[in-house]
Amino acid sequence: MSETTTHIPDEKARIGAPSIPGFTEEGENLSPLNEAASPLAGDSVKGHSHGGGVGIPDSSRAGRLTSYDVDDFAPLTGREEDWRFTPLKRLGGLHKKELTGAAPKVELSGDEKVTITTVPASDKLRGVVSTPEDRVAANGWKYANEAHVLTIPANAEGIKSHLTITGESMDPAAQHIIVIAQENSEATLVLDHVGSAVLSQNIEFEVRAGAKLTVVSLQAWNDDAIHASSQQAAVAKDAYFKHIAISFGGDLVRVNPSARFAGEHGEVELYGLYFADAGQHQEHRLFVDHNLPNCTSNVLYKGALQGEGAHTVWIGDVLIRKEASGTDSYEANRNLVLTDGTRADSVPNLEIETGLIEGAGHASTTGRFDDEHLFYLMSRGIDEKSARRLVVRGFLNEIVQQIRDEELEARLTDIIEKELAVTNN
User: Fold this and answer.
1) What is the DSSP string of 125-171?
2) What is the dihedral of CA 412, 414, 419, 420, to 10 degrees?
3) At a CB cut-off of 8 Å and minimum separation 6, what does 172 contact?
4) Residue 383 burial (C-beta neighbours within 10 Å; 0-12, 13-18, 19+)
5) Which of 45, 70, 107, 418 could form a disulfide with 138 if both were Cys (CB 3.0 to 4.6 A apart)?
6) Residue 380 to residues 367, 373, 376, 385, 394: CA-CA distances in angstroms?
7) pLDDT tens digits for range 126-176
């Protein structure tokens, strides 16, 4: 168990008075070898084109290769930092096959103010927010011949929409979805993945000035589904973006939410809940890029594991760039191991290039039941099985409550109960 936090002093930081010990407004120089010309320093890790970054590969999220061309990414071996936890043999060929299968069916319900259109892959809306960051996303980009565009109108309030994404084929496929929250709109969107599919998916969220967008990405696939989803957001001035990833179904699920800021005073919250059963692989890799001043982010993912071979992976990358003074950021991952034979990998990464921040920290914990909690409940006449269920429900409920949709919360509570029934058998 490890936990670290840093906070700014009460007195506002000034040039020459860093808010983090050991840092200056230029960031920390960890080694005399890291001079300006070093591949570990300065613009060398931040240089980007659509052909990717430069410098030492994987040395920083800022230096990762990004490209629309799948051929720019080397064939995967499983030794790459970004893929070392993922069982490539179970990817269904998403990293190397032609993704010409039928994409999952898309159906929109809810508020009629939200519109959905289909545009060709060449449309100028595609790529406004994101560029693929890995080979699977780039392969999906290559083979998606159209994009579904959801538009939330400006100044709309209280919008609730539900996009059901139904897989009906196990042939490897690609899908592209674009969500545009226009200025000063307020909306909640549920992306409900069901059925069976082998899918490389790219989703772009454009959250324009003053907009407030909450997205719930629910992975409720059948047991045979394989799903790799890159979900990238651009958050404009004074905008708010909340993303909640919830993963229960599927054989292999890998969801990569990321957010960058397109204007000052943006706010990002990334939440996640996952429950892995025997043989399931559930992976969540997120990235918050603090590239502008005076923005905030908060990340909290919680997961439970049970059964032989259940494997979860959480990678949390937060980058605070030199120009991002006034940043306030925190990320945490909590894992609860319910049975033997499981594995939870959790890696919080925090890169800070300036000391002029409000605060930053990260935390990660993985463990079994708290014996004191169980003892407390059992001492009051609750049997052990029921006590365990109460502890798990309480542990996960913090994320469920973030949804603020009674119908969906009830559905998730029911799913959790079914999972816990397996635990107690």
Assistant:
1) TTTSS----SHHHHHHHHH--EEEEEEEPTT--SEEEEEEEEEE--S
2) 120
3) 92, 93, 94, 97, 98, 99, 100, 101, 198, 199, 200
4) exposed
5) 70
6) 24, 11, 7, 14, 17
7) 999 999 999 999 999 999 999 999 999 999 999 999 999 999 999 999 999
d(CA 333, CA 310): 17
State the pLDDT at residue 101: 97
pLDDT of residue 276: 96
Q: What does the angle CA 114 – CA 116 – CA 121 come to, to the nearest 5 degrees?
A: 145
Ranges under pLDDT 70 in the chain: 1-60, 369-371, 373-377, 423-425
Element (H, E) at 219: strand 212-219
CA–CA separation, 54 and 171 (whole Å): 35
Question: Which tokens go with 413?
Answer: 């509570």
Structure tokens at 247: 């993963």
DSSP bridge partners of 363 = 3, 332
CB 326: neighbour CB atoms within 10 A?
19
pLDDT of residue 346: 96
Which residue, chain included where needed, has tokens 């034979």?
341
